[in-house]
Amino acid sequence: MICFPNSKINLGLYVTGKRDDGFHRIESIFYPVPFLDVLEIIPSAKFSFETEGISVTENPEDNLAVKAYWLMQKEFDLPPVNMFLLKNIPSGAGLGGGSSDASSCLKLLNDVFKLNLSLGQLTEYALQLGSDCPFFIANYPCYVFGRGEMMEAVNLNLTGIYVVIICSGIHINTGEAFRSLTSFSTLKVPVPHLIHRDRPFWKESLQNNFEPYAFEKFPVLKEIKEELYKEGAFYASMSGTGSSIFGLFEKKPGKDLDVYKNQEGYVVWEGELGK
After folding, report:
1. How far apart are alpha carbons 164 and 195 in whole angstroms?
2. What are 145-182's pLDDT values in tens digits?
3. From 3.30.230.10, 3.90.1150.10, 3.40.50.150, 3.60.140.10, which CATH number describes the 2-153 domain?
4. Peptide bond into 205 cis (omega under 30)
5. In the β-sheet with 6-18, what is the strand arrangement from edge to edge?
6. Three-class SS of residue 138?
7. pLDDT tens digit sequence for 82-132
8. Would you tell me which of 7, 31, 80, 86 could form a disulfide with 95, CB atoms 3.0–4.6 Å apart?
9. 50-59, 212-221, 240-249: least confident range
10. Cβ distance 126 to 137 under 8 Å?
């Protein structure tokens, strides 16, 4: 059985404090994007895991999709499987690719082995794998808060909006990004209210708290964001803790952004968003 794990972008990302358990409190809007990996699971005589596409240098046992399998295998005594992952979404890009692979694995195992788990139960397992994983169980536009595990659906429809995502290949360490914060956001207006303002206001009203650190350390990221605005984006931002930069357009931009497709180490994805 095969599935297509998608990515996400952040519309605003605010860190509002630190919890007693060491995690930070965040607020953001997660929006699904049809920039896809491919995951296939087939029952087998013994467990195996293969990857193709973008290089994944980590130990296979550290891959979140593999961890998802072993979590469910322990819980339900699942038989061995062959897992094949075609990796298109860059790791460490703030697009949630690894989290999406993990949650897709949970859903696929649920279907392959007819476990009859509810979305709520799958969400509980996903949370054991990572803070972003529960979003990809629901996989619709959400206001995300807490440490990322708490979600509320938002009435936001960007169907037909054209998105360009530019991944420079720069790796930003998530822990280092959080440690760079010298203060926390005090939001006067809840994030869901901000996105219901007219889109031209998003440029000024939505912020990613990790951009100052990332742009100072890697100035090219700021340059990419500025270029997206020059090409007509009504909103551009870094996604997550980085390092991908995306722009949202009312219509497909011209060819000036094609220069990034030819730069070594860059991955560029573009297409229309769905609901």
Report:
1. 19
2. 988 888 999 999 999 999 999 999 998 888 888 888 88
3. 3.30.230.10
4. no
5. 6-18, 24-36, 142-145, 150-153
6. helix
7. 999 999 999 889 999 999 999 999 999 999 999 999 999 999 999 999 989
8. 7
9. 50-59
10. yes
Q: Which CATH architecture has domain 162-272?
A: 2-Layer Sandwich (3.30)
- Who's near 9: CB < 8 A, 6+ residues apart? 30, 31, 33, 95, 163, 165, 237, 239, 246
Answer yes or no: 261 catalytic.
Answer: no
Helix (H) or strand (E) holding 235: strand 235-238
Catalytic position from the list 67, 101, 132, 225? 132
- DSSP conformation class of 215: H
pLDDT digits (tens, 9 = 90+) for 17-71: 888 887 889 999 999 999 999 999 999 999 999 999 986 656 788 899 999 999 9
132 annotated active-site = yes
Identify whether the C-beta of residue 268 lies closer than 8 Å to the C-beta of residue 261.
Answer: yes
**For residue 235, what are its two tokens?**
């909103």
User: What are the CA-CA distances from residue 31 to residues 58, 140, 156 (Å)?
Assistant: 27, 7, 9
Identify the CA nearest to 99 among candidates 128, 61, 132, 124. 132
Buried-exposed string 184-211: b where 16+ CB fall within 10 A, e elsewhere: ebeeeeebbebbeeeeeebeebbebbbb
How wide is the angle at C-alpha 164 spanned by C-alphas 162 and 169, nearest 5°? 165
**Catalytically annotated residue among 8, 67, 107, 225:** 8
Residue spans of the domains in the chain: they are 2-153, 162-272
pTM above 0.85, yes or no: yes
